[in-house]
Amino acid sequence: MNDIGFRIRQLRKERNLTQVEVAVALGISRPFLTAIENGNNSPGRATLSAIAEYFQVSVDWLLAGLPTTTNTSKIHIIGEVQEGFWKTDYVYEDSKQTVFSVPFFKKYENINRYALLVMDESVNKIYPINSIIVLVDFADLSSAPSNGNYVSIIRRDHLTGKFEVSIKKLKLKKDGKIVLYSCSDDPNFEKPIILSHFSLEYTLTKQDKNTSFPDLKIQGLVIGGFRIEA
């Protein structure tokens, strides 16, 4: 798969769209879209422009991963993610925060967005190392997660007292349980987290008297992810 195909497939999957839905919207065949995503065919200028308009990104970003002033917005990278190890602080100090331009998300234009930097292969099912993952908080969305969403969770380490972040795929079971799956294909990473009921906040152990923060919180919805080109 070439980079153009990777980015188009990434955009489609982030929006939970099928190849048929995208192909119909663009006026092309599904096999042609499949070939583009797999790197076996290249879209012409008209098709590329249509894809960019459909996903509300720039042609420059589709071609080279380079944001331009058109259809982009600036967000803060506020932390890092190393899923499964619980080693990385969720929020950088102000002095460590950086600003990055990402393709514009019209659906979320009036909602605060922020980003996390992928530090290793721990989310390699969805994003490679050095990607930035763009999120919005469920509190700002005023809505609950849906089945199949990729979400950020904050977990309190009772040994260190630190709050750490990870990205999980959320599944709602028929019996009401919530399962949070790792986004890595490495078997050494953490097993799924199974929760007995749906909530955005969970107390899993005896709480310290000096904190009101839950042991685990489903914090944000992943709305996009982009590779930082070298």
From TrEMBL:
<dbReference type="InterPro" id="IPR010982">
    <property type="entry name" value="Lambda_DNA-bd_dom_sf"/>
</dbReference>
<dbReference type="GO" id="GO:0003677">
    <property type="term" value="F:DNA binding"/>
</dbReference>
<dbReference type="InterPro" id="IPR001387">
    <property type="entry name" value="Cro/C1-type_HTH"/>
</dbReference>
<feature type="domain" description="HTH cro/C1-type">
    <location>
        <begin position="8"/>
        <end position="62"/>
    </location>
</feature>
<keyword id="KW-0238">DNA-binding</keyword>
<dbReference type="Pfam" id="PF01381">
    <property type="entry name" value="HTH_3"/>
</dbReference>
<protein>
    <submittedName>
        <fullName>Helix-turn-helix protein</fullName>
    </submittedName>
</protein>
